């Protein structure tokens, strides 16, 4: 399978997927990395791994529709089977999410449906939650609202800071995201009627 990874920043999840694809070269390969920010560090990670990169700078577009149209055009042209949002900090239009429905994954640092949007770690602490985590979901028009594929949890210790919580969750993300990508590429998961279908692999 061919996948595209969309980033806006550091790209540590991208790195985890780069490392994973090297262990599973038959299963999938990252054909393209797209960033909406020209100076995203993740672009360097991709270049270092010999992966083609593309910058579509959102500041050059007057509205979401025109930005998404260009992004869609590029992704269609690259003929990828899966789009992986990895710290891609843009809200996508309904038309875009519909176009790639069932072919796009996102990772979100909370136990969805709790804490959609930003600052999830601080919000979980402020709410007095005893646990927090990450969710990987299919992307649908609803922001951070698509069907969840898998979650992982960490405990919030007394006196825990948002920073340390973020670090703990990041480490888990780097394990969970490549796993979900592999599941998709192996045909073990699919989106059907706005639900995740888990397929048993027959031997
Ligand atoms: C991750 O915490 C992810 O959950 C969120 O954005 C962050 C991206 O980090 N959507 P990185 O760029 O992969 O290091």
From TrEMBL:
Annotated Pfam families: Formyl_trans_N
Q: Which reaction does it catalyse?
A: N(1)-(5-phospho-beta-D-ribosyl)glycinamide + (6R)-10-formyltetrahydrofolate = N(2)-formyl-N(1)-(5-phospho-beta-D-ribosyl)glycinamide + (6S)-5,6,7,8-tetrahydrofolate + H(+)
Q: Which UniProt keywords apply?
A: Purine biosynthesis, Transferase
Q: Which GO terms describe its cellular component?
A: cytosol
Listed pathway(s): Purine metabolism; IMP biosynthesis via de novo pathway; N(2)-formyl-N(1)-(5-phospho-D-ribosyl)glycinamide from N(1)-(5-phospho-D-ribosyl)glycinamide (10-formyl THF route): step 1/1
Q: Where is the active site?
A: 108 (proton donor)
List of residues binding N(1)-(5-phospho-beta-D-ribosyl)glycinamide: 11-13
Q: What is its EC number?
A: 2.1.2.2
Q: What does this protein do?
A: Catalyzes the transfer of a formyl group from 10-formyltetrahydrofolate to 5-phospho-ribosyl-glycinamide (GAR), producing 5-phospho-ribosyl-N-formylglycinamide (FGAR) and tetrahydrofolate.
What HAMAP family does the record tag this protein with? PurN
Query: NCBIfam families in the record, alphabetically?
Result: PurN
| Membership in a protein family | Belongs to the GART family.
Q: What is this protein called?
A: Phosphoribosylglycinamide formyltransferase
User: Which species is this UniProt entry from?
Assistant: Thiomicrorhabdus xiamenensis
Name of encoding gene: purN
């Amino acid at each position: 399978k061919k996948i595209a990874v969309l980033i806006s920043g550091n790209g540590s999840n991208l790195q985890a997927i780069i490392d994973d694809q090297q262990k599973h070269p038959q299963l999938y390969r990252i054909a393209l990395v797209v960033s909406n920010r020209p100076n995203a560090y993740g672009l360097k990670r991709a270049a270092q791994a010999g992966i083609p990169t593309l910058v579509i700078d959102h500041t050059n577009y007057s509205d979401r529709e025109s930005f998404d149209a260009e992004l869609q055009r590029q992704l269609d042209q690259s003929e990828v089977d899966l789009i992986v949002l990895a710290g891609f900090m843009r809200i996508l239009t309904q038309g875009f999410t519909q176009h790639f429905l069932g072919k796009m994954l996102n990772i979100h640092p909370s136990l969805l449906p709790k804490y959609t949007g930003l600052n999830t770690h601080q919000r979980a602490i402020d709410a007095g939650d005893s646990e927090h985590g990450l969710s990987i979901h299919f992307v649908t028009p609803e922001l951070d609202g698509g069907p969840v594929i898998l979650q992982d949890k960490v405990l919030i210790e007394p006196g825990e800071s948002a920073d340390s919580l973020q670090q703990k969750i990041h480490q888990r993300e780097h394990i969970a995201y490549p796993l979900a990508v592999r599941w998709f590429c192996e045909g073990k998961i699919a989106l059907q009627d706005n639900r995740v279908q888990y397929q048993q692999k027959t031997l």
